[in-house]
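Fig. S4 source data, part A: sequence.
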Amino acid sequence: MSDLKYQKHYYSGTRLELMGVVKTALSDYRYQHVVRVEKMALKLATKWQADPEMVSVAALIHDYTKERTDDEFIQAIQTYHLPVSLLAWGIIFGTELWVLK
């Protein structure tokens, strides 16, 4: 798994760079979960002939926003000038669906 080389199809950096970005955004508990998910996902990718780079990136970012607060999402909506209707419905940001209070 550590020898997987990204060809920049889905992420512009290396796998190790992506892991570093993800690690800084998550608690150690959640990060270790993400690493285990990637390991299993790559096994399944081999079995089902799926693109290992795509699978790796998806597995590594699947919980990227899991530990973000509602206030962080509200701030992101404002900062990036996203539709304010997201505040009423909930938001899809990154890879997670968050329903705001």
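Fig. S4 source data, part B ends here. The longest strand covers residues 91-93.
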